Amino acid sequence: MIVKVRDARYAGTIYESLPRLPQVAFAGRSNVGKSSLINALLNRKSLVKTSKQPGKTRNINFFEVDLVDLPSLYLVDLPGYGYARVPQGMKSAWEKLAARYFRGNEDLRLLMVLLDIRRDPGKEEFMVLDLARSTGARPLIAATKADKLTFSARARRVKEIARLSGAEPIPVSVVSREGVDAIWECILREIAPG
Ligand SMILES: Nc1nc2c(ncn2[C@@H]2O[C@H](COP(=O)(O)OP(=O)(O)OP(=O)(O)O)[C@@H](O)[C@H]2O)c(=O)[nH]1
Ligand SMILES: [Mg+2]
């Protein structure tokens, strides 16, 4: 099925104050490509600000998306984890913000966990995968910046990430647009089953 985006707009930062719609959230380290991927999904150059400088996005930003012949939804751009380093044992600003966002959020259908295809999943990825499971949202790993590797290196990395995380990652690139349609298919499976 081809997804046609009718309109997409910034809707705010606080979901308690927004009309209820299904949500698809994007989590990952700073600079992994969350904002870029949302723009690619929406076919927009710069609806969401992207940056070479990590830690640009510090709020949870909701983008309301109207689709042709399909239900509307929010794409939710979470801040990159680890933007505020804190002493061991203390919860980071990110964890506090995320805990508030995930807790009791029945509208969150799918959590895309973005991981640079050249990196192994670590503590932060496992933490956010657990958070998704606690809400009942389906977690999925997107391996970003796939264009940075040769075809064979990419296949090796996909296998390795699958082995370490226990889930098959979707390789994506906003440069080649590889994986963009595959992610829409995963979104539709959650918001418009059948
Ligand atoms: N080559 C390549 N570069 C990418 C890709 N996706 C993102 N980038 C680049 O990576 C940098 C960071 O992208 P962003 O989308 O701003 O990353 P982010 O995850 O939103 O970062 P924060 O908002 O800081 O958490 C930018 O310079 C992007 O152009 C990709 O698929 N391929
Ligand atoms: Mg961003």
Automatic annotation (TrEMBL):
* GO BP, one annotated term: division septum assembly
**InterPro entries from the UniProt entry:** G_ENGB_dom, GTP-bd, GTP-bd_ribosome_bio_YsxC, P-loop_NTPase
Gene3D superfamilies, per the entry:
P-loop containing nucleotide triphosphate hydrolases
The protein's matches in SUPFAM superfamilies, at most eight in alphabetical order, are given as: P-loop containing nucleoside triphosphate hydrolases
**Pfam families noted in UniProt:** MMR_HSR1
This protein's GO cellular component annotations are: cytosol
PROSITE patterns membership: G_ENGB
Keyword list (alphabetical) reads: Cell cycle, Cell division, GTP-binding, Magnesium, Metal-binding, Nucleotide-binding, Septation
Quote the CDD domains the UniProt record gives. Answer: YihA_EngB (cd01876)
Decide whether keyword Manganese is in the record: no
Task: Give every EngB-type G domain span.
Answer: 20-193
Cofactor requirement? Mg(2+)
Q: Name the protein family.
A: Belongs to the TRAFAC class TrmE-Era-EngA-EngB-Septin-like GTPase superfamily. EngB GTPase family.
PANTHER family noted in UniProt: ENGB-TYPE G DOMAIN-CONTAINING PROTEIN, MSS1/TRME-RELATED GTP-BINDING PROTEIN
Protein name per UniProt: Putative GTP-binding protein EngB
Task: Give the gene symbol.
Answer: engB
